[in-house]
Write a sequence for this structure.
């Protein structure tokens, strides 16, 4: 096990690290520590998906938000977003930009779950039964504006739920870290505009 300094560690001077030169001692420790910091901080995964939807009349479109075919909110729809995790991926936080309306007449919600892709990219084994954004709690009622739903960044323990539960990050089991994953988002009376997926950093601090 290697201890990583919490403060900024400058790399050795270029004069001490010419090509084809043998390095040892303090220089080697500095290089190893810098590489370890990069692997734990700079190389965490992220993915960004933008979803084409109908343009509203208020911003130059010709189809109302609640009508038409591709832009209607009066539907249930499933979206699949592939995510290449890293060996350090344990918690995935989601930031979803969306539009929603019809709160008065129906139930509006957005659900997210995590699946593997070993057998099939769309119907792989469920790794985390996931979460549910609920109207009036996590979702805004404004069909003419883009709103944001966020899972938060709490570093939860491995979940045991078998149905969607209140909002939290998705959990990646240790056996599936580093694999290609599928985040399935099911919407009811809501239109996602963009989905942003991020790894959460778990800092390791030695007393």
């Amino acid at each position: 096990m290697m201890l990583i300094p919490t403060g900024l560690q400058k790399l050795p001077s270029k004069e001490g690290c010419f090509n084809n030169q043998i390095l040892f001692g303090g220089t080697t420790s500095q290089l190893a520590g810098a590489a370890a910091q990069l692997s734990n901080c700079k190389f965490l995964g992220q993915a960004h998906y933008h979803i084409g939807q109908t343009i509203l009349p208020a911003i130059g479109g010709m189809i109302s938000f609640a009508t038409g075919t591709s832009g209607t909110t009066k539907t249930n729809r499933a979206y699949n977003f592939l995510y290449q995790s890293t060996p350090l991926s344990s918690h995935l936080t989601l930031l979803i930009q969306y539009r929603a309306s019809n709160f008065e007449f129906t139930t509006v919600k957005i659900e997210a779950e995590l699946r593997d892709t070993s057998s099939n990219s769309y119907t792989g084994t469920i790794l985390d039964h996931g979460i549910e954004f609920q109207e009036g709690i996590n979702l805004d009622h404004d069909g003419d504006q883009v709103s944001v739903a966020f899972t938060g960044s709490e570093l939860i323990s491995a979940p045991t739920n078998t149905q969607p539960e209140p909002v939290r990050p998705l959990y990646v089991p240790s056996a599936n870290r580093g694999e290609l994953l599928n985040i399935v988002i099911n919407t009811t009376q809501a239109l996602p505009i963009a989905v942003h997926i991020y790894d959460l950093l778990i800092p390791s601090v030695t007393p």
Notes: The chain has a mean pLDDT of 79. Strands lie at 46-50, 76-84, 91-100, 109-116, 126-134, 147-150, 170-171, 180-188, 190-199.
